[in-house]
Amino acid sequence: MSNKDNKFMPENKKTAALIIIGNEILSGRTVDKNLNFLAVGLTEMGINMEEARVVKDIEGDIIKAVNELRAKCDYVFTSGGIGPTHDDITALSIAKAFGVELYRDPVAKKLLEDHYPPEKLNAARLKMADIPKGATLLNNPVSSAPGFKMENVFVMAGVPSIMQAMFEASKEHLEGGAKMLSRMISAYITEGNIAERLGDVQYKYPDVEIGSYPYIKNERLGTSLVVRSFDKTKLDQAFAEVKSILDKDGVEVEEEA
Amino acid sequence: MSNKDNKFMPENKKTAALIIIGNEILSGRTVDKNLNFLAVGLTEMGINMEEARVVKDIEGDIIKAVNELRAKCDYVFTSGGIGPTHDDITALSIAKAFGVELYRDPVAKKLLEDHYPPEKLNAARLKMADIPKGATLLNNPVSSAPGFKMENVFVMAGVPSIMQAMFEASKEHLEGGAKMLSRMISAYITEGNIAERLGDVQYKYPDVEIGSYPYIKNERLGTSLVVRSFDKTKLDQAFAEVKSILDKDGVEVEEEA
């Protein structure tokens, strides 16, 4: 199938991965909000998220994920673990992944000095100015302690509002690629009724990615059909054929976009 | 720190990982709901989720994730990609990961025959009865097409209501381990004010995991401190010391559990 062989990928395709760092996500205490935010933001820029991982606050786990994914993707984003407490070990882990030392960045230190009154700027908070040698700061308008970019790895906070601000600051370093175009149609139909004909359309258009996503809504079964391609002409052709399957069946279309 | 060395892990600790399979999560079209549900459910059973991954509907990516994580954890769960359409390639990928063939399971076929009228049970739907040789079915009371368990890998649907039913069906095969106990206190305090003293408590109790999670609520900064341990006595001692840090600072406690 088209997905497997990546036939539809143009040469200027850009890829990314996300590493969510935090025991609290894996224990279920906290519901992650960063994956979907970043996925939507990157898709808008023409950058394709290839993989996401959630790892524990364990140095070896963070280093392994960072090194695997920075070799595989154009960009890697991390969220979580850059605060002042003992369990914030992301910056040190990134430094070790790159084989460099942490150092106290004077600009980051100044940002903290400007933000905190002197009696509040203790050793723990100053730790937030320690970044790997060779890293570039990412501005944090919410609470001043910056994120940073080390080569193609963007290190962001876990708190969603701060993560979102740091992603904004990352954008000037990101080069968008060919944009995956997308059309969608949802209908009260079950997948099994259209699966064979849908497979035929997929087979006919290897440069188009056709996804089928069942849902349950108002106690009825429905399916969203998402047609994606870097090529607008082929996208429109394939979408028209997908739609004609539904038209022939006379099913009730719920949404089209 | 305690996390890094896993000092607090008892011998009967049980571990798990989740692999979410689906382009729609990585493109941002769909918001995942399965990670948190499974994390909470496993934590309740005394099974610790060690890692989660989101991978694309690509055979090689699925096989790599399954083989890495089934070697690392006691249990692996997957969600997504077991429907009737061309992009549902999870069952075949699992079979390949284990080096076995897919076969049409007669019990699964019977379940589909009982659920669908004969004219609706087409080749695409029958594909949902194909499971890897040696697998055990997981009942699906929602829409009949079963999930399955292959050795320590539990293969579930992506639709949350069906995934949740299949997790229920999985439970009879799961052995809970030592239960991680947890106490939490949230207060309107910023992490940096307590980080050093918190680090001291963590250093004193290596068998306890102390997590610090900042949040923003009602336009105020707060921090949730989560103390976790397999050992109730040490948990209570460490929690008392954490609480005394807040008491000494006279901060407003927002929640305690």
List keywords for this structure.
homodimer; 257 residues; alpha/beta; 10 helices
Can you walk me through this structure?
2 copies of one chain form a homodimer. The model of chain A is unreliable at 1-6 (pLDDT under 50). In chain A, strand 10 (209-217) and strand 11 (220-229) form a beta hairpin. In chain A, the strands form 3 sheets. A 6-stranded mixed sheet of chain A has the order 2-1-3-8-7-6, sandwiched between helices. The longest helix of chain A is centred in the last third of the chain and has 18 residues, at 232-249. The two termini of chain A are 25 Å apart. Chain A has 257 residues and is an alpha/beta fold. In chain A, helix 4 crosses helix 5 (90-98) and helix 9 (191-204) packs antiparallel against helix 10 (232-249). The first copy, chain A, has 2 domains: 2-173, Molybdenum Cofactor Biosythetic Enzyme, Chain A (3-Layer(aba) Sandwich); 181-256, Alpha-Beta Plaits (2-Layer Sandwich), CATH 3.30.70.2860. Chain A is built from 10 helices and 12 strands. The relative contact order of chain A is 0.14.
Report the average pLDDT across residues of chain A: 92
CATH-level-2 architecture of the largest domain in chain A: 3-Layer(aba) Sandwich
Please bin the fraction of helical residues of chain A: 25-40%
Distance between the first and last residues' Cα of chain A: 25 Å
Number of domains of chain A: 2
User: Could you name the CATH class of the largest domain in chain A?
Assistant: Alpha Beta
